[in-house]
Amino acid sequence: MQGTVDGFSYGLVTPVVAFLMACLGGALGLRCTARAIRMSRSWRPGWLALGAATIGSGIWTMHFVAMTGFTVEGTPIHYDGLITFASLAVAVVMVGIGIFIVGYKGATGTALFTGGTVTGLGIASMHYLGMAGMSLDGNLKYDVLMVAASVVIAMAAASAALWAAGQVRGPLWSVGASVVMGLAVTGMHYTGMAALEVHVHGTAEPAAGEPAAALLGPMMVGPLAFLVLAGVVVIFDPLMVAGGPAASPAERKPGVPAHPPAHHSPARPRLRARGPVEHRSRTPQRR
User: Fold this and answer.
1) Backbone angle region of 11, left / alpha / beta, with phi > 0 → left and psi within -120 to 50 → alpha
2) Quick one: pLDDT band at residue 282, thresholds 50, 70, 90?
3) Interacting residues of 122 by C-beta distance below 8 A, sequence separation 6+
4) 236, pLDDT greater than 60
5) Where is this region: Disordered (predicted)?
6) How far apart are CA 19 and CA 140, in angstroms?
7) Strand intervals (E) in the chain
8) pTM above the 0.85 mark?
9) Residue 57 · residue 227 · CB < 8 Å
C-alpha cells in the first residue's frame, strides 16, 4: 500500500534551519572562491579546496537536517552509515571540481557553464545518494519529470551563485550568492522529495541500519565543527574583511624575463651650445 509521506513533521523548523545551513556553507565557500580568484596560483588551490569542503559540508548538513523532519506512516526509517558518509564525499568532490574550474578559468562562458553544471550535479548526486541510504519497510518510487526538474534547479542556481562569486565586488555579492546557493539546495531538495512515493509492504520486519537520531546526530557534528572553523578562517582573514585586491606576484615562465625591459623613447639630439652670435651691421662703412 502507498504510505503517507510527511516532510514537515516538525513544522517549519527543519526547512528554515536547513535553509540557513545551506546559506552558511554557501557563504563561506563562495567567499573562499572569491578569495582564491584574487590570489596567486600558489595559494589558490588551498582556498578553492576550503571552499569546496565548506559548500559540500553545508549542503550535506542541510539535506540531513531536513531529513530529520521526514517520516513515512506505517514504517520506521533507518539509515545506512556507509552510504550516508559516501554522500558527503560525493558532494565535496563534485562541488570541488566545479569550483576549481571557475577558480582557474574564470566565471565566464564555457567555464561557468561547466563549473555550474558539475556543482549542480554534485548537489543532486548527494541528495539521491543520501536517499538511497534510507532503509524502510517499503519501496521508493520517483517521478522522472520531477527528478529532472530538481536537477535543473540545482544546476541553474549553482551557476548563478558561482557567477556572482566570481564578480568579486565585495561582501554583499557573496551574501547574495550564498542566498542563491541556499535556495538552490533547499529548492532542489524539496522538489526531489515531492517526486517521491513510498509503497509500504506492511510486514513486521525491522528495517536495517540505524535510526535517524542515533546516526545523523553524531555524524553532523563533524561537518558543523568544520563550518565553524572555516568561518573563523574567513572572518579573521584581513583581505576578506577589507575586500581589497591582493597583489599577485609575477609568474616566471621559461624563456621570458621576470622584468621586461622598459621601452625608452628615442633620445633627441642634443643641441650644441653656441657662443654669442656676431651681428654684422648692414650700414656701409665710410672709407
Assistant:
1) left
2) low
3) 56, 90, 91, 93, 94, 95, 97, 98
4) yes
5) 246-287
6) 25
7) 5-6, 71-72, 78-79, 134-135, 138-142, 196-200, 210-211
8) no
9) yes
